[in-house]
Each structure stands twice: as C-alpha cells, then as structure tokens.
Design a protein that fits this description.
three-stranded mixed beta sheet, mainly alpha, 7 helices, binds zinc ion, Arc Repressor Mutant, subunit A, two-stranded antiparallel ribbon, single chain, 48% helix
C-alpha cells in the first residue's frame, strides 16, 4: 500500500479506537501495519508469523483477537470462503478476487460491472444480503505455466489440478443442464 494511504488508514484506526474507547496499543498498531504492507491476503497464522519477528512476546491468540478487533472496527476486511482458512484483506472498498485453486494465491480485481450486478430476490428465504464479492477460481500465472521438460513436482501437481477443475466444471455444467 502507498505510504500516504497507509498513514491515512492508521489515522482512521486511531480515530476508531478513540471513538470506542479502545486503547491504541503497539500490538494493535503493529498487526495493522503488517497487514497494510501485504497484498497477498494473509491468513491469521501468516500474520502471526510475521508479527512475531517484530514483537516476539505476542501470542497467537492475541494476534487472532487483534485481527477480529480490526475487522470489527472496519479497518480491514475478512474474506471467508467455505472450507478454507480465513484470509485478511487491507482493501475495504468493494472489489473481487481471483483465487488460484493450486497455491491458494488471491489476487484483487476491480471492475465496475461486477459492483453493479442485480442482487437475487431472496425474500422468501428470510435471508438479508448485506454485500457480496465475487470469487473467480482458476490458476495463477505461476501454476498455469506449462511444465518444463521432466516436469518438477509443482507443475505436475498443477496439471492434476487443471484436470480436476475441468472435470468439476463438466459435472457442474451437466447438472445445470439437467435442471428443469
Ligand atoms: Zn497458483
Ligand atoms: Zn482483496
């Protein structure tokens, strides 16, 4: 994140703490700074590993708690998709993601057309939609590149994932077609 945007976000964090009577601790500030420096949507454990290099005495539980506080304050966002570890995102305005099915890398994507889709009518289900973001799943450039001669383990694995993805999408299409 650009230094100006970063310091603006830190100010926003301090303001939010003051408003809610929460102390601006070095721990909270450090965790936030580390997230703002990353664009790879880290998991809580990855944040913990990094924070430990600056604050060795901070426990894993405290890092988890601080992350939750930052999300509650609206300073960072939590990205959830079922079956995967929660990832944290410094970008809080609406955007979407490209998710690599092989290495689980998450890339940001911004496209106004995706911000303006018609929301489905879910009134009958009693569900209230607050917001949405779209995940496009596939393979990142590293994982999609064709295997070198002899094929190292990673690229062989990527090939398997590609095959599996093709199988799944075939199955899903079939299912969709068979719906009345
Ligand atoms: Zn990948
Ligand atoms: Zn993102």
């Amino acid at each position: 994140m650009e230094p100006v945007a970063k310091s603006r976000r830190i100010e926003q964090f301090e303001q939010a703490c003051r408003t809610r009577g929460l102390p601006v601790t070095t721990q909270r500030r450090t965790v936030l700074e580390m997230i703002l420096e990353r664009e790879d949507h880290p998991t809580a454990d990855q944040v913990y590993e990094q924070v430990r290099t600056r604050l060795p005495s901070l426990s894993r539980t405290s890092v988890y708690r601080i992350l939750d506080t930052l999300v509650r304050l609206g300073i960072i966002a939590k990205i959830c998709h079922p079956g995967a570890a929660t990832r944290f995102d410094p970008k809080i305005r609406q955007h979407h993601h490209l998710i690599c099915m092989h290495c689980e890398k998450i890339l940001d994507i911004e496209d106004q057309r995706l911000d303006n889709i018609t929301r489905p009518n879910v009134r009958g289900s009693g569900f209230t939609i607050h917001d949405y973001h779209i995940h496009f799943r596939g393979l990142c450039a590293d994982c999609a590149s064709p295997p070198r001669k002899g094929g190292d383990a990673a690229s062989v694995k990527a090939k398997q994932v590609r095959k599996k993805a093709a199988r799944i999408s075939k199955r899903t299409n079939k299912k969709r077609r068979s719906k009345p």
